[in-house]
Amino acid sequence: MSGLTVVIGYGEAALDVLRHLPVQSEHADVVVVDPDAVALTGAIANGARVVRGDGRDICVLQHAGVQFAARVVVAVPDDQEGVLIAGVARNLNRTAVIVAAVRESANQDLFTRLGADEVFVRARSVR
Predict the structure, then answer these.
(1) Would you put residue 20 in left (φ > 0), alpha (ψ -120 to 50) or beta?
(2) Residue 74: which residues within 8 A CB-CB, separation 6 or more?
């Protein structure tokens, strides 16, 4: 898939999702949104542009270009925040493919109803 991909949250979940999506790396236009400077440094090292900020903030999402994106990946640590972000992303861009990384399988249907086109259920780590 060509076009802009906006990744909201840049950790293991995002990397897992990105590994499963068809992205032409030499032509990929990826913007990562995350509040953590260390995560953003990793994203820059992988060739992405970055926006430091909270993915729940509509202004941050607009600055990242969600309204123009071909694909939006929501991979934040908290499912409830992820649902909110997916809903806002869908309102900003009706045509983007929205992919969500979900921690609890029970939330999969909620993400789908609120605009996610694809949902990856990630196993929670047991402590």
Answers:
(1) alpha
(2) 8, 9, 55, 82, 85, 86, 89, 98, 99, 100, 101, 116
pTM across the whole model:
0.88
Distance CA 43, CA 22 (A): 18
**Can you name the residues that pair with 29 across neighbouring β-strands?**
4
Tens digits of residue pLDDT in 83-110: 999 999 999 999 999 999 999 888 999 9
The amino acid sitting at 63 is H
Instruction: Tell me whether strands 118-121 and 97-102 are parallel, antiparallel or unpaired.
Output: parallel
For 45, which DSSP code?
H
Asked if residues 122 and 101 have their Cβ atoms less than 8 Å apart, the reply is yes
Q: 3-state DSSP call for residue 118?
A: strand
For residue 99, list its beta bridge partners. 73, 118
pLDDT in tens, 34-78: 999 999 999 999 889 999 999 999 999 999 999 999 999 999 999
